[in-house]
Structure formats: structure tokens, C-alpha cells
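Recall that a protein's primary structure is simply its ordered list of amino acids. Everything else, from secondary elements to tertiary packing, is in principle encoded there. The following example makes that idea concrete.
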Amino acid sequence: MPYNPRRGQSQRGLATAVIAIFVLAAMATSGAAQVGSLYYQEVLKDGRYYVFNTAERFAGFAKSGEVGTSITLVGRGPNGETVVAENETALDLFLFKHNLPAFDRPAPKAPAPVIPTTLKVGDGELKFGALLQAWYVADDSEASTGTSYLGNTVGNNTFRLRRAELKMSGKITKDWGFEVMIDPAKSQTFSAGGDDKILQDLAVTYIGLKGHEFAMGQKKITISEEGMRSSSELDFAERSRITRIIGDARQGGLFYKGEFGEKFGAFASVTNGTLSNTNDDSNDTLFSAARFDIKPVKGMVFGVSGGTGVTQIDHRVRDRMAAHFRWDGTATLPLWLRFEYGKATDGQGAGKADIDREGWYGSALYTFAKVFQVGARYEEYDANKDVEGDKLKIATAGIHYLIKGKNINFKLEGKNINFKLDWMGIEQEGRKVNGVLDERYNQLVLGAQVAF
């Protein structure tokens, strides 16, 4: 590309003068010269000077007549000729040889300011993060029949503050860290079995062993892929029903996360088996869980997970099992595929029969124009396999606007800020409205998200 610097009459730089003196000592009037590793050649052709300081570029010019990438100075020759130079060194030598004013280079751009991502606090480092989600929910059910599995009131059209997660994390030493996350958007109604408490995660972590992390505190149990995923990275407005049943639960205990090369990953947890933020007087209520992932190629994950233990004061048995598949596509094929199956057994105590639950989902999402994504998901859930007519079937379709789009490795950065419009067609067997069987209804969720 032609380069048009501003003209100037500045003094020759000392470095340019020294180079030129050595070159001129062996330079013929208009011929080639080489001193040590320096080379110089100039050609006057059609009112232009062509100047080179490498033999390879000159040979290419002699053969094709093309200079390639160059610096062009209009009217800077001895008699007003245009000068086309291979590079700045060749230009400096030409100007010095012909006793012309030195090449005045543009001032370099100032480096961009570095924005810190951590703060130094005492002996440690502190990071802040946030996830903010607001929803508008529309529901075409004729009457209110409680809440859907998304937590939306069936039959109501309303705004909803879904999440306001505020997180602090950091290190005290290079080997020891911490994290704490609260969600002030929680309803604080403390309903039975609900997750209504502001405190979400709290842990002290050991990270002194590369590729491994050990934590003690309150975090998610290590079951399912979608259930363990951060809420900021969900494919649709909310998780599937089955992953909310078998995973997506916080308990207090010990947690492990590790990588074994690029192909294998593992998670494990041993927790108290009770609801989050619960201090109870039960004894030996432990729930053990683990997850194992295989990564055959970049962006693809196969895995299994499961857990077993006793919970609550009366030591009810609880078993969980899941298998998952995830593929994040490639730069040339921006297609996401997901599949997950889960099964749960919940003891009822006092000689009652256990409840066996089962479900699965499959989804596909395609990104186009880097910032728009369309997706579909189908899921089924059986709340009690021993009872007929209680299955839940949900078809979801959505279009998402991922404002930050994707980066070069096709890792979507849209989680930082996005808008999602998801429609859910819901079939709930046995559902009645005002005593009349009404098993089908629709919900629409418009969600806005900011995360960092």
C-alpha cells in the first residue's frame, strides 16, 4: 500500500548517518553495493526511483517489474521524482546518498491503557463478577395453576427479576483462594424444598496442584453437565427439567475439580445432603457424587455422573444417575448439539415406596452472522414411573441475539450480554383447570442478560 508521510526537514538521525557512511564507502554512483550484510540498489525508471536493500527483492523487481509492499514518497527525488522504497532502511540510504532531508517517520501510537482485572487487597487479590437477568413472561393458560418448573406463575403475564448474582473471588496466596456469591433477587419466601436464600456459593479453595482444585464450603453437587453449568452459559432461558431434578443443587461439603491432560476431566463432591444454607441436627447425612468427562476432540464432551447417599433427618435414600453429550461446533460449522439423560430415586421414609423419576432432553442451536442464534430443544420428564398420566413434555424454540458474538476459536462470548426470546409448548398430563382437563399451554420468555 502507498505510504504518504508528512514532509519534513528534520535532521538526519545519528543511526541513519552511521549506516549510510559505511554503505557509501563501497557504493558506486548508481550501482549495487554490499558492505557486511547491507545491500543497496537504486533504479531510475519512468521518472521514478526504485530503491532496495535486499538482493532478493531487487531480483524480483528485475524479473517482474513489481516492488510489492513499499513506501512511496511523492516528489522526494533529487529533481522531484517519486521514490518507491522497499523499506525504511532503503529509503534512509537513498536520501542520505542524494543529500536530501531525512525521512520523517510518523510518531508511534501510544499503547492502549491496561485495565486491571484484579485488585490487590492486603496480602491477596480480589476479583468481582456479576450476572444480571431480567425476564418478561407471557402465559396463555386460562387460569393460575401454581408455578411452572421455570418458576413462572402459570396463567400470568408479568416481569420477573430472575437473577442478580454478585460474586467475589480471589487468592490469599498463590496456592489458596476463595469465592463467595450471593443473589439478592431470590424471593426469600423459604418455601419447602425451594432455593430461596440469598447466599449461593461460599468456598475456601486450594489450587496449589496444577490442574486440580479442592474446595470446602457450599457449591453445586457434581451431577449432570447442564446442571453444573454456570447460569450465564445456559443455551436457553432456563435449564431442562431433568437437570434441575438430578443436579443444579447447592449443598455444603467438600468439592474437587481436575483435568487429566486434554482428554479427561473429573469432578467429585461429598456433601451433607441437605438444602443449601441449612444447619440441622441430623447425623451422618452424606451425599457423594462424581462426574467423569471424555473429550475426544476439541469442543466435544461425553460424560457420566451420579450420586448416592442419605438425606434429611430421617435418612431417606437418594440416588442419581446421568449421562451427557455436548458438542460446541467449529468455526466453519457453528452448530451446537446437546443430549442428556437422567434418572433419580427418592426414598419417602416410613415404609413408603420409593419414587423413581426419569427424563431426557436433546437440543440443537445454530449461530449465523456471528451474533444471531436459533435453537430448539425437546424434553420429557416422568415425575413417577409407577404412576400413569403424569409425564411432562416440553418443546422449546428460541432466537437469541448475542451482542458480543464469537471469537476466533468459536467460543461464544455472547454470555456477557444477550437477549433471548424462547417459546415453550408444554404438555402436562393430568393437568386440570377449574376441574376440566387442560393439559396444554404455552409460555414465552423474553430475557435480557449482562454478565462479567
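The chain is about 10% helix and 45% strand. The radius of gyration is 33 Å.
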